[in-house]
TrEMBL record:
Involved in DNA repair and RecF pathway recombination. Pfam families: RecO_C, RecO_N. This is DNA repair protein RecO. The gene is recO. It comes from Fusibacter ferrireducens. Residues 1-77 form the DNA replication/recombination mediator RecO N-terminal domain. Belongs to the RecO family.
Length: 248
């Protein structure tokens, strides 16, 4: 049996022989693991498509326990991302977070299309990379069913709020007297809430053409990084250290 589907390579791991193991986020089958036999060799017809960021049409043999890549028609290699260390760092972060947060074989067209669009933007356009990162984190919370409570009622007791305190473990806004001493909190205001709502619903191509003051991104980015790590149980993102190295 064969599966023919568009997909984007999230991860490529070289084996001790000439094979490359790929993690591909696909339109028709969700996240899948595929082996590209011989793709480690530059002479292999599969070598060009066995790299992160490659977007293409994958022909996959599903008849055995380990799915094998038979052929791939590349729509876009997105190689220009690798020409910029900053784009490579942020792009790698998004691919890795997608890989860590996405269950195998779960079809999620909205998430898939978002990752394809983000990679395309990184390859073709100069964008605010931190805004792109924040937007992905917020949309990921929405896609995964963990969008925080941003209504003017406490996530713990349900009573109306007179100030906006965002509690990570509680999953949204809470009263000061409802704060668990072990929880991590962030003070926000109405404008922060409006920005989060905007980033959660607007198309990513609209977002990157919208100007936001950096202080909003500075405040919301660590808040949502921590929120995602707690609620999606993601302990470590290797590529985050890459971003941190570039910012020094």
């Amino acid at each position: 049996m064969f599966l023919e589907t568009d997909g984007i390579v999230l991860k490529a791991t070289k084996s001790t022989n000439n094979d490359v193991f790929l993690t591909v986020f696909t339109r028709k089958a969700g996240k899948i693991e595929v082996v590209a036999n011989g793709a480690k060799s530059s002479k292999s017809p599969l070598a060009a498509c066995s790299k992160p960021f490659v977007f293409g049409l994958f022909m996959i043999n599903t008849s055995s326990k380990i799915m094998r890549l038979n052929n791939c028609t590349i729509h876009n290699s997105n190689f220009r991302i690798t020409e910029s260390l900053e784009k490579l760092a942020y792009g790698s972060y998004i691919l890795e977070l997608c890989h860590l947060s996405t269950p195998k074989n779960l079809i999620d067209l909205d998430h898939y299309m978002l990752v394809v669009e983000i990679v395309d933007l990184l390859a073709k356009k100069e964008v605010d990379l931190r805004l792109l990162q924040l937007s992905y984190l917020i949309k990921l919370a929405k896609f995964s069913g963990h969008m925080p409570n941003l209504t003017a009622t406490c996530a713990q007791c349900g009573k109306p709020l007179d100030e906006f305190i965002f509690a990570i473990n509680a999953g949204g806004l809470i009263h000061r007297h409802c704060i668990d001493e072990t929880d991590q909190i962030f003070k926000i205001n109405q404008q922060f809430m409006q920005i989060v709502q905007y980033l959660s619903v607007k198309d990513i191509r609209v977002i990157v053409n919208t100007k936001f003051h950096q202080r909003y991104i500075d405040h919301l980015l660590p808040m949502f990084e921590l929120y995602i790590s707690v609620h999606l149980d993601i302990r470590h993102i290797n590529s985050k250290s890459f971003i941190e190295t570039l910012s020094k």
